[in-house]
Structures are given as structure tokens and as C-alpha cells.
Amino acid sequence: MKKFLQTLCYTALFLAFLSPNLVNAQEDPTIVRVGVYDNSPKIFMDEDGEIKGFWADIINYMAEQEGWQVQYVYGTWDEGLERLANNEIDIMVDIALSEERERLYDFNEKSVLSSWAQVYAREGIEINSFFDFQDKKIAILKSGIHFSGPLGLEKLLESFGIEVNYFDVEEYADVFQLLDQGEADIGVVSRFFGEANAEKYNIVQTSLVFNLVELRFAFPKNAPDNNYIIPVIDQYLKNMKSNPDSIYYQSIDEHFPGIKEEVEIFPIWAKWVIYGGGFLLLIAGLFIIVMRTYQRTLKREVHEQTAQFEKSEEKYRQITEASIDGIVQIGKNGKVIFANDAAARIWGFNKKEVLNLDFTKFVIKKDIPRALMAFKKVLNGESVVDEYGFIRKDKSNGVIQISSYPYKIKGIVTGVTIIARDITKKKEAEDELKNKIAELEKAMRLMTGREIKMTELKEEIKKFKAKQ
């Protein structure tokens, strides 16, 4: 028995020597260092020095459930990326996924949000297309994906042969300040920051958007704790996004009211994958028939191209479903042919119930003529942004903001894509504010009238005393 116990102890020590991280792998990390920067309302530091915003809400919720002690490491965007590369932080929030960044950092699997670049201009300058960028001064975060990414502004303008002058900024607020001060002609920010902050400046939102991206959590490359923390975060995201009452949707309602979206529902890169994949499949089929000797090689090429297409299609589906706003595609006959989960939630239906319904079924009666007129304009190639009263499945009414634009295949308009945002609560708050302002103005007028009458009375008393 003694010999057996000795053998067991030696075996345990031997295994511990071979696998020094085995014990640590079973222990959850108690301190999690999270890199943050100012990009309100997604993530920011308030006046009291507290980290707030959508990403903070998600991190704090997971930390509370898991018993993590979160240490926020505040800095600029560039400082956050440098700390991530040097393993000085465990997580960086709000990072757009790209192939280049996947080589530098590890990412979680599930998309948190979808975003894109929104173009703004200083007052007095008209920007209708990217050709209007020629010789203009552009304010942009050059270290961000909207500048240097595969579909970023740098490559976009180079492809058109458009020459510009860039202002490199540290944060998005600098973009709006440069536009407001007239030092820059055009500015590029993320759609979340633009919607939350544009009204604070004398600037103009254009109809130009580009570079649809997925936003995720990023981690130091091959860090030991990644094997534990990444699956945990993905599981929380899965659970939160499947529950409409979760902290995920509560934080979206709090931090992203009135988002206006106008973006091509099918990304340019995905179109080229489909066209290119179809062309290669056709060539492969011809070679199989004509040249039997290359059959195995061609089958391998077809398989690779099909896998690439399926991967791109799945990635597009994930981006669409990650959107916090409704994305709906309508055929030329006015019937709904696609709707994401967010759109179905707005109207109170599930996605299957929405399909094949006439879009006017969701618009209140008095707004239908205006909605039909907008639909006709979009089919003729225009883009329209407007607000309508809408009807939910339970017959209750609300107010919705819709950005609609033509959906084209090979340059031919085949339908209409709309981006929808429920702004009922926002409208109610605005109406309440207007009523309060009206009441205050009325009270002010009454007080002013009384003050004038008191002044006149004093003058009369003074004259009467003088006569005595």
C-alpha cells in the first residue's frame, strides 16, 4: 500500500512538471485589464472619471457574473492597440475585425455590433460623391480601419485616382472640431459616434457611407488566458443576444437612440466574391468536360471557391443579424423579401411572418401616400430619409425613422433596401420637452406683463403724491 501511494505521488509530481499550466487553467483570472478610449456613446470616460457606455455595460455585467475584477486602462486608440500588442492589457474593446488585425491579435468568435464609416462635411461645402473629395482636406483617424482597412478610405480614393490632404487625428471628437472650425473640409467617423455627437457641432451629414465592419473584443495574440476568457465572452454574447430583455439590448436602447443608417445591404467585396466564384465555377465545369486529365485539380479548385463563397455568405449574414437596427429588403412589387431580427422586433413579428407582406401594411394610413411616393423615388435611383408612423402586430402605433436607397444588381435597380430605427421614445421625449418649453414661455409672458403693470402703477402713485 505504501509503495502504491509513493508511486501515485511521483506520478502526480511528474504530470505537474510536464504541464505547469494545468492547475492555472482551472482557475479563472480574477483581474482583467481592459483597454478603453473615448468613442462616445460606445465607450468613454465621464466627468467623474468613470468608464461608461455600451461596451462598459457588457464588460461589467460579465465581470459581475464571473467574479472578475476589472481594471480599465484608459488612453488613446493608438495607445490601446500598442498595449494590446505588448500584452499590457487582457482585452481591447470596440475593434473592427480584419485579416490584418487577425494576424496581430486574437478575437472572439461572435460579432458584438456592426458599424460603418459615415462622412460629414463642414458647413457651406456640398459633398454628393467621393469624386467631390478631390483636393479636399480630410480629417480621419488614420490608424483606424475606416482609413487603412481593405475597404477603407485610402484604398477607395486611390482606386478612383482622387488626391486629397489628410488630417490625422487621435480621436473622433477631433474630426468634428476640425470641421466646426473650418480647418477641414470633410470628416470620417463611425456611425455610432456621428449619430450621438454631430448635433453638438456646426457640420453637415452627407449621404456617403462605406466600409461595413464587425466590432468585436480583441486579445493579445496567443495569450495564455485567451483559452479561458474568449469562450466565456462568446457564451455570454450568445445568451444576451438571444434574450430581448438582456443587458445587451437594454444598453443599446440607452446609448444608441435615433441611429440613422443608410448603407448598401450587400457589401462590395461580397458581390465580387459571388461574381468571381460563379465565373470560376463555370470555367471549372468546362475544363472538367474538355480536359478529363485535369479533373482532380479542377474539382479541388471548385471546392476551394465554394468554401470561400459560403464563408463570405455566412460572414455577411452574421454582420446583418448583428445590426441593432432593422434591415429590410423590398422587391419592386412592394413585398418584403428579407428582414433581419431587429426589423422583426420593431414591428412585433417574427421574420417568417414579415416575408411576402406588402410594406404598406406596417405604415399608418395617413402616411401611406408619402411612403409610396418615397418608394417610387428610390426605384428611380434616389435615396430618401424620412419618418413615418408605423403599426405593430399588436395594433399599437409608433414612430420610425427610415433610410431607403436602391438595391442594385449589375447597375440595375431590383428593389429597395431600408434601414429602420424605432424612435417612438425619442419623439415622445421631444414632444414632452416642447410642451414644457411652451408652458415656461407662457409663464414668462404673464410675469413680464405683471411687471409692466406694477411699473405703471408705481408711476401713477408717484404722480399722485407730486400733486399733493
**Which secondary-structure class do the elements indicate?**
alpha+beta
Q: For the CA atoms, what is the radius of gyration? A: 29 Å
Tell me roughly what share of residues is in helical segments: 40-55%
Question: Sheet with the most strands?
Answer: 9 strands, mixed
Shape summary: globular
According to CATH, the fold-level topology of the largest domain is D-Maltodextrin-Binding Protein, domain 2
Overall description:
This protein has 468 residues and is α+β, with helices and mostly antiparallel strands. It contains 17 helices and 16 strands. The chain is globular and about 95 Å long.
Quick structural summary:
With about 475 residues, the protein is of the alpha+beta class. Helices cover about 45% and strands about 25% of the residues.
Main attributes?
single chain; 468 residues; alpha+beta; D-Maltodextrin-Binding Protein, domain 2; nine-stranded mixed sheet; five-stranded antiparallel sheet; 17 helices; 16 strands; globular; disordered N terminus
Topology:
Elements: H1 2-18, H2 22-25, E1 31-36, E2 44-45, E3 51-52, H3 54-66, E4 69-74, H4 77-85, E5 91-96, H5 99-104, E6 105-107, E7 113-122, E8 137-140, H6 145-148, H7 153-160, E9 165-168, H8 172-180, E10 186-190, H9 191-197, E11 203-220, H10 226-241, H11 247-255, H12 268-290, H13 295-322, E12 326-331, E13 336-339, H14 341-347, H15 351-354, H16 368-379, E14 384-391, E15 397-409, E16 412-422, H17 424-467
Parallel strand pairs: 1-4, 1-5, 8-9, 8-10
Antiparallel strand pairs: 2-3, 5-11, 6-11, 7-10, 7-11, 12-13, 12-16, 14-15, 15-16
